[in-house]
Predict the 3D structure of the following.
Amino acid sequence: MDDKELYRQILGVVQPWEIIKIDLDMSKQEVNIYLEYPLPSEGVCPKCGKICPVYDKREERIWRHLDTCQLKTFIHCQTPRITCSEHKTITMDIPWSSNMSRFTNQFERFAIDLLKATKNRQKAADLLRISWDEIDGIMKRSVKRGMKRRKDDDVPYVGIDEKSFLSGHRYATILTDITGKRVLDIAENRDTQAVDTVWKALSDKQKKGVKAVSMDFWQAFRTGAETHVPNAVIVHDKFHIMKYLNEAVDAVRKQEHKIFMKNKDDCLKGKKYLFLKNRKDFTKKDRSNFRDLNLTQLDVGRAWNRRELLRNFWDYTYEKPARNFFKKWYFSATHSRLSPVIKVAKLLKKYFENIITFLKHRITNAFAEGTNSVIQLIKSSARGFRNFENYRTAILFFCGGLDLYPQESR
Ligand SMILES: [Zn+2]
């Protein structure tokens, strides 16, 4: 088998494309392969698929291909232009790459797999021996492709949430498909404009099919749901609600600790995480630490008790007993004489009609929370996010459930 035949098979070159030359440059560790579309000839119009005469060739372009024998491999070609009666003179599609890329499809496919495996742009770029900007370009292109290919499938349960980025100084709004476990879109800020932007990720048909939306109490999220999916039910997210109660417990602990310390009593010192922990996650040591405290005598013990009590609410199936339970809980919370707890109880009462909707739909923002670990990973990689577009691209790349490859998977 000669070199041309070998590369013809490696690259999958088919008639009428021909390999006319192979240049090996050992000093640069490179192999350059020259492809040609022989003239005179005919070609397919990229717009209408009609067979048309080839008009001329454009000047040579170069595509990076997967390494062969550990040599950087480049394809050189003058792409032909055809003359279509309808579409005039137009560049033909080439089988090994999309017209926008300086890489072959196989190279991009491999780069995407490497990015997914390393979750680190710099590492992937180093392994591929390409620049940061080039790997960035591959990521952006693949996300763009994936977003374009999205289908009109049903998205019955949607979550809307906020994310902080750039070390917490700025916010973003994230819309997720709870059933499909994917990020639909993310926009900068958490105002009405950002909310309107992310809702655009769904078509009108999809919006009509949304049954319920999970969210915290943020007003822009509520208004957005009322505007974009007026028939959907709002379900306030139980994790956000439990977080409010955690904050209340912590506020009570801090207050009490301060008072105790005036009398040199440090029994609440270093107990922050003990009180924030879910009781069922207690270790043996946690349990003994907990027993040593005289909980019923402590404000933080009573606050903690209200929080643990409310956990039971989410286990109810039927509305009536759940309403009764909440009524009792509300009474005990508002009579606790603990102002942080009373504040949260009043908040829950205010939004209660959109909290009890959980019993029927049982959705939460857990998936959006789960993307945090992926975001953390990308953040910690070199260069992090230089701007919001980078951040959005990375999230959609890793969590968008997109078909990213150059050629659509079937
Ligand atoms: Zn045409």
In short: DSSP finds 16 helices and 13 strands in the chain.
